[in-house]
Sequence to fold (318 residues):
Amino acid sequence: MAGAGLEASHRTVQQVVPQWRRSATLDRLQQLIDASATAPAAVARRAHLSASELHALRHLSMQAMGPAELAKALGVTTAASSGVVDRLVAHGHAERHPHPLDGRRTEVRLTDSGRAESIGHLAPMFAALAALDASLSDEERVVVDRYLDGAIAAVRTLL
Amino acid sequence: MAGAGLEASHRTVQQVVPQWRRSATLDRLQQLIDASATAPAAVARRAHLSASELHALRHLSMQAMGPAELAKALGVTTAASSGVVDRLVAHGHAERHPHPLDGRRTEVRLTDSGRAESIGHLAPMFAALAALDASLSDEERVVVDRYLDGAIAAVRTLL
DNA sequence: AGAAGATAACTAAGTTGGTGAACGAAAATT
DNA sequence: AATTTTCGTTCACCAACTTAGTTATCTTCT
Fold:
């Protein structure tokens, strides 16, 4: 079923990905990816929110949208995103507004409290990131940008 | 309660983090962090595993450990990690072995199927990452390493 | 050695947040 | 005007988490 057709014992990364070589840079990237995947749950817990609610706050802070669009952004069903919006509204972080032109739609807008929430808990990271970014020379920036583009593409092969 | 004491309206990132400036590099890093946070769920779905089970496979593929240590790695309670191990065992991806010295302990070891599972689904990313890593010159690597160290530290401020 | 305390793993019961299916209201299509 | 599609919601159900409490084993103290 799961590992169907794989009769080999103890397959290693090297066997599956022949060009794989351990490197300190790669280790660092792994750590970054790992931390990025772990952080949302930690932040959500501190904010007394679920991971989806936090995720939703991020998206809504960039752009107001309806439950259906939000569902796509979160990777869940519209039924679930309805619940997410319910909870955000209950916490006072968002409000539902009727769409002026299309009577079917609802626009979910963040309240000030929601906006503060979405920014506040990430502030320490933003500060550290801004300092790091400012420390880059133009030549260094070119190198970093290229690397990040590659890393993004690599991770996105999984999506 | 949540945004307690914040009476200001429409606080922006710039107000909370004065040194914040939008930059293409920062945008890329945000995308990387976002993709890293989103990918596990997508991979888990394809592998017919929960996010925690996938996470557990990753950790166990590096080092066999008991449910308690696994729980800490996953950021859940030991009760939850007991369930995770149950499911991995049920799927044939892991086995419980009694600890030779300490009768309280159980060592959770991956089976070949578990090992294949943990590597197989991430192979496309590994391949892309390996190619990217190999393309770095020594001077570029220094720059990238420094940046990644900073980024890791930034994200870890949230943990 | 024996008692007291700490630790590892598990179990039980309850909560949360997800899915899929069915539904009403409001467009859009024909 | 009738039909189909879309949007948001609700319902019933399920998976995975939490807290609390049990059992077995190890450690420490007298």
Remarks:
- The beta strands of chain B are 94-98, 106-110.
- Residues 14 and 81 of chain B are 41 Å apart (CA to CA).
- DSSP finds eight helices and two strands in chain B.
- Chain B has one domain: 42-156.
